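Reopening this one. Same input as before:
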Amino acid sequence: MEWVTGDTKPDIAARLPLLDTEGEETGGYADLTDATVKFQMRRPDDKRFTVNAVATVTDAPNGYVSYTWAANDLSIPGAYQVQWEVTWIDSSRQTSAIEEITVRRQ
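Same output, byte for byte:
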Protein backbone atom coordinates (compact mmCIF):
# COMPACT_ATOMS: atom_id res chain seq x y z
CA MET A 1 0.00 0.00 0.00
CA GLU A 2 1.20 3.50 -0.75
CA TRP A 3 0.21 6.94 0.47
CA VAL A 4 1.58 10.42 -0.27
CA THR A 5 3.01 12.79 2.36
CA GLY A 6 0.36 15.13 3.69
CA ASP A 7 -2.60 13.03 2.55
CA THR A 8 -5.45 12.29 4.94
CA LYS A 9 -7.49 10.12 2.56
CA PRO A 10 -8.22 7.38 1.81
CA ASP A 11 -8.56 5.79 5.23
CA ILE A 12 -6.51 2.67 5.86
CA ALA A 13 -8.75 -0.36 6.32
CA ALA A 14 -8.47 -4.06 7.02
CA ARG A 15 -10.46 -7.20 7.67
CA LEU A 16 -9.03 -8.94 10.71
CA PRO A 17 -8.75 -12.72 10.54
CA LEU A 18 -9.91 -15.05 13.28
CA LEU A 19 -6.91 -16.61 15.00
CA ASP A 20 -6.71 -19.88 16.91
CA THR A 21 -4.99 -20.35 20.27
CA GLU A 22 -1.64 -20.74 18.46
CA GLY A 23 -2.09 -17.41 16.64
CA GLU A 24 -2.73 -19.09 13.29
CA GLU A 25 -5.47 -17.91 10.92
CA THR A 26 -8.50 -20.20 10.91
CA GLY A 27 -9.91 -19.06 7.56
CA GLY A 28 -12.66 -17.02 9.22
CA TYR A 29 -12.80 -13.42 10.40
CA ALA A 30 -12.80 -11.97 13.91
CA ASP A 31 -16.16 -10.95 15.38
CA LEU A 32 -15.26 -7.57 16.86
CA THR A 33 -18.56 -7.04 18.65
CA ASP A 34 -17.78 -5.44 22.04
CA ALA A 35 -14.06 -5.20 21.16
CA THR A 36 -11.97 -2.05 20.75
CA VAL A 37 -9.25 -1.74 18.15
CA LYS A 38 -6.13 0.43 17.88
CA PHE A 39 -4.22 1.20 14.71
CA GLN A 40 -0.44 1.21 15.24
CA MET A 41 2.26 2.37 12.83
CA ARG A 42 6.05 2.70 13.14
CA ARG A 43 9.20 2.71 11.07
CA PRO A 44 10.80 -0.75 10.81
CA ASP A 45 13.89 0.39 12.76
CA ASP A 46 11.95 2.17 15.55
CA LYS A 47 10.36 0.65 18.66
CA ARG A 48 8.10 3.69 19.19
CA PHE A 49 4.82 4.04 17.34
CA THR A 50 4.38 7.16 15.24
CA VAL A 51 0.65 6.40 15.33
CA ASN A 52 -1.05 4.54 18.17
CA ALA A 53 -4.69 5.54 17.98
CA VAL A 54 -8.22 4.23 18.29
CA ALA A 55 -9.53 2.74 15.07
CA THR A 56 -13.15 2.48 13.92
CA VAL A 57 -14.85 -0.90 13.81
CA THR A 58 -16.91 -0.53 10.63
CA ASP A 59 -18.53 -4.00 10.52
CA ALA A 60 -18.03 -5.82 13.83
CA PRO A 61 -19.48 -9.27 12.98
CA ASN A 62 -17.32 -9.50 9.85
CA GLY A 63 -14.06 -8.11 11.26
CA TYR A 64 -13.78 -4.83 9.32
CA VAL A 65 -11.83 -1.90 10.78
CA SER A 66 -10.49 1.41 9.51
CA TYR A 67 -8.38 4.33 10.65
CA THR A 68 -8.76 7.92 9.47
CA TRP A 69 -5.37 9.58 9.04
CA ALA A 70 -4.69 12.61 11.24
CA ALA A 71 -3.03 15.71 9.76
CA ASN A 72 0.59 14.74 10.58
CA ASP A 73 0.39 10.92 10.41
CA LEU A 74 1.80 10.83 6.88
CA SER A 75 4.19 13.78 7.12
CA ILE A 76 7.47 11.86 6.78
CA PRO A 77 8.15 9.72 3.69
CA GLY A 78 9.50 6.20 4.04
CA ALA A 79 8.58 2.61 4.83
CA TYR A 80 6.35 1.83 7.81
CA GLN A 81 4.99 -1.23 9.56
CA VAL A 82 1.33 -1.22 10.53
CA GLN A 83 -0.73 -3.50 12.76
CA TRP A 84 -4.10 -3.61 14.50
CA GLU A 85 -4.37 -4.31 18.23
CA VAL A 86 -7.71 -5.75 19.40
CA THR A 87 -8.77 -5.55 23.03
CA TRP A 88 -11.54 -8.02 23.73
CA ILE A 89 -14.34 -7.53 26.26
CA ASP A 90 -12.44 -9.68 28.80
CA SER A 91 -9.46 -7.24 28.52
CA SER A 92 -7.28 -9.76 26.64
CA ARG A 93 -5.36 -8.38 23.67
CA GLN A 94 -4.48 -9.75 20.27
CA THR A 95 -2.34 -8.06 17.62
CA SER A 96 -2.56 -8.65 13.88
CA ALA A 97 0.31 -9.58 11.62
CA ILE A 98 2.52 -6.68 10.53
CA GLU A 99 1.94 -5.21 7.09
CA GLU A 100 4.22 -2.82 5.23
CA ILE A 101 3.13 0.51 3.77
CA THR A 102 5.03 3.25 1.98
CA VAL A 103 4.66 7.00 2.29
CA ARG A 104 6.14 8.74 -0.72
CA ARG A 105 6.93 12.39 -1.38
CA GLN A 106 4.46 14.45 -3.37
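So the earlier flakiness isn't reproducible anymore. For the record, The first strand starts at residue 2 and ends at 4.
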